[in-house]
Input
Amino acid sequence: MTKTKVHKDEIDWLISVYKTSEDEGLMHESLEKLMDFGWDKKQINERFELIKSDKDSLNAFNKAWKKQEERNEFEKYTTIEIIKIFLLGPYELFKFFDSGLKELWNFNYITKFRQRLILLILGTIFWILFFVGTYKYYEYKRIQEIENVDISDWERNRMTNE
Output
């Protein structure tokens, strides 16, 4: 993911999560993110007093969510992720019946949705052609081996026995 400017509403939402959440893991994670953005506990407490009302917190969350959805729209897979989806995606699709497309669509990953759909289709076609081609190749080799077998001794023995 590319580095982007942190929006004020995202900070407000992280602060309200840190101060109001009852989940220890979520509190710790939001505090770490805030500290990564350069905030200390004193600044967090001061800012929390300003955004104390639930309405402000909800607005901050909604604005932050919209900003995140805007960022998600054009996010793309890395080359390694593309290769992984192409080669392993059909296996995961048929084993777990989970393509991952629904989540991408729900979180507005439009570019990733298209990429994944195309990669799953192409990967499935690739693996079908690979297995069919491998079967045909070994079938061809087996028939060639049968045709190339020297049966002259067998024919000579058959002729002398009659």
Q: What stands out?
A: The mean pLDDT is 81. The radius of gyration is 30 Å.
